[in-house]
């Protein structure tokens, strides 16, 4: 990973995570969110490894196995002429709450928000195993990514590295289709 990386981001312990989830309920996240969307509260990893900067110049982190698999996958894609870029990786439940608050401030309803963002405490990003991927010449976090050579490459090759598309069309979680969101599952 990188020799002079900044310190990893703060993570929530169990008590903090529960406070964040309660705060999310207070903002309007339904109390039955986990059951309704078939999602469990996600534990944050004890250790995170640097994977370098994202497309915005922010340092990003993943759990050790996911980080090593990502770096191998990115190198394999590059060898095939495909550039994979990170848009977002680990984020704490507390940061997910900030994202929800910002969207509410912009006037979005909670229903609109929860179609495109997991509730705080339930996001795969909290696990340190999920990342949002982009490639040059395609807008980040947009469905048009599915038309890119990078997405075609990921569909063919990501499984070799333990990564899978989390939110295909019509997924059981009721989350909008996200061709950019991939999660590492121990192979």
Q: What CATH architecture label applies?
A: 2-Layer Sandwich
**CATH topology annotation:** Muramoyl-pentapeptide Carboxypeptidase, domain 2
Please tell me the total number of domains. Answer: 1
Beta-strand portion reads: 15-25%
Strand pairing plus helix content: what structural class?
A: alpha+beta
What does the oligomeric state look like here? single chain
Gyration radius, rounded? 16 Å
The total of helices stands at 6
Mean pLDDT: 93
Report the end-to-end length measured between terminal Cα atoms: 21 Å
H/E element order: HHEEHEHHEHEE
What would the principal axes of the Cα set say about the shape? globular
Q: Characteristics of this structure?
A:
Muramoyl-pentapeptide Carboxypeptidase, domain 2, two-stranded antiparallel ribbon, 6 helices, globular
Structure in words:
- The protein is of the alpha+beta class and 187 residues long.
- The protein has a single domain, classed as Muramoyl-pentapeptide Carboxypeptidase, domain 2 (2-Layer Sandwich).
- The chain has helices at residues 14-27, 33-36, 64-79, 93-105, 110-116, 149-157, and strands at 49-53, 59-62, 85-88, 130-134, 163-167, 178-184.
- It has a four-stranded antiparallel β-sheet. A two-stranded antiparallel ribbon has the order 1-2.
- β1 (49-53) and β2 (59-62) form a beta hairpin.
- α1 (14-27) packs parallel to α4 (93-105).
- The protein is globular.
- The protein starts with 13 loop residues before the first helix and ends with a strand.
- The mean pLDDT is 93.
